[in-house]
Write a structure and sequence with these properties.
Layout (H helix, E strand, L loop, with lengths): L2 H59 L1 E3 H4 L4 E2 L23 E3 H16 L2 E7 L4 H12 L7 H4 L25 E8 L28 H16 L2 E4 L2 E7 L16
Parallel strand pairs: 2-4
Antiparallel strand pairs: 1-3, 4-5, 5-7, 6-7
Helix pairs in contact: 3-6
Length: 261
C-alpha cells in the first residue's frame, strides 16, 4: 500500500472512531438527561399525590387555610422551621401554612376583628397538626441525648419529665383541627406583646396564672384570653397561647394528612 493510500486509510479510520466516540458521549448525555427527567417526574408525581391527599381531606372534612378566611392574620409556623423545642422541621409540615376547621377559622376571624379594634392582630404559631408530627415529638422525647434546644425551650424541666408534666402527649387536640396557638402583635410597632414567656417554653412561667411574670405581662395574657373566650375558644391553663374551639366538630378524630400549600 502506498504511503498516500495508507495515510488516507488511517485518516478515514480516525474520523470514524472520532464520530463513534462523540456519538457514544452524546448517547450517555441523552440517557443521563432522560434518567433525570424520569426522577424529576417521579418526585413531582409523589408531591402531587401528597398534595392531592391534603386537598381531598381538607375538602371532605371542612378544613380551610386560615388566611383564606382572614388574610390579615399573621403566620409564624414554628414547626415548619428549625426554631422550636426539637430544633428542626417537624414531620408533616411541608409548607408554612395554617389549616383549621372552617368553624374554628371563622371564630378566629371574629376574634381578630376584636383585637384589631384595639390595634392588635393575631399571629399563629401552630394550628392543625398532623398526627405524624406528634409521633415525631414522641420519638424525640424518648431520645434523652438530644437536648440541643433545652436552654431555649425547657431550661428548668428535665426532658424525661415532659410527658408526665403534660407538655408532650401521644395525642393532641391540634390534630382534631380546631386548636390554635397564638399571640397578638401591635399593629403600629409590628412587635408581639410582652407575655412573659415565648411560645413553647415548657415550665411554670408559661402557665396562664404564673406568678413568675409581671402585672403588665399578666394583663397582656388576660387580654388575649378574654377575647378568645368571648369568641368561643377554651384556654389551656399550662400554655397561655393555646386555645381550642369549644364546639369543635371533631372531638375524637385525629387527622394525619400533611400540611401542604
Amino acid at each position: 500500500m502506498s504511503k498516500t493510500l495508507k495515510g488516507s486509510f488511517y485518516g478515514i479510520l480516525f474520523v470514524i472512531l472520532l464520530c463513534m466516540t462523540s456519538a457514544c458521549g452524546q448517547g450517555k448525555q441523552v440517557a443521563s438527561t432522560e434518567v433525570k427527567k424520569t426522577e424529576k417526574a417521579t418526585t413531582t408525581a409523589t408531591a402531587s399525590k401528597q398534595q392531592t391527599k391534603t386537598q381531598i381531606q381538607t375538602k371532605k372534612y371542612g378544613f380551610v387555610k386560615v388566611t383564606d378566611i382572614d388574610p390579615d392574620i399573621l403566620l409564624e409556623i414554628r414547626y415548619y422551621s428549625g426554631y422550636n423545642f426539637v430544633g428542626r422541621r417537624i414531620d408533616g409540615y411541608h409548607a408554612p401554612v395554617a389549616y383549621l376547621t372552617k368553624q374554628a377559622a371563622t371564630a378566629l376571624k371574629h376574634a381578630n376583628t376584636e383585637f384589631k379594634k384595639d390595634g392588635y392582630i393575631i399571629k399563629i404559631y401552630d394550628a392543625y397538626r398532623p398526627q405524624g408530627a406528634t409521633d415525631d415529638f414522641v420519638r424525640w422525647a424518648k431520645d434523652k441525648s438530644d437536648t440541643k434546644m433545652k436552654k431555649f425551650f425547657y431550661p428548668d424541666v428535665d426532658k424525661s419529665k415532659l410527658f408526665e408534666s403534660g407538655y408532650i402527649a401521644a395525642k393532641t387536640r391540634h390534630s382534631r383541627g380546631s386548636t390554635v396557638d397564638i399571640t397578638i402583635v401591635n399593629m403600629t410597632t409590628g412587635k408581639e406583646i410582652d407575655t412573659g414567656s415565648h411560645f413553647d417554653v415548657f415550665g411554670e412561667i408559661s402557665h396562664y396564672d404564673s406568678d413568675k411574670v409581671t402585672a403588665e405581662q399578666k394583663k397582656n395574657r388576660k387580654m388575649i384570653h378574654d377575647v378568645m373566650i368571648e369568641n368561643g375558644f377554651m384556654p389551656y391553663a399550662k400554655e397561655w397561647w393555646h386555645f381550642t374551639l369549644e364546639d369543635e366538630p371533631y372531638t375524637d378524630t385525629y387527622f394525619s394528612f400533611p400540611v401542604e400549600n
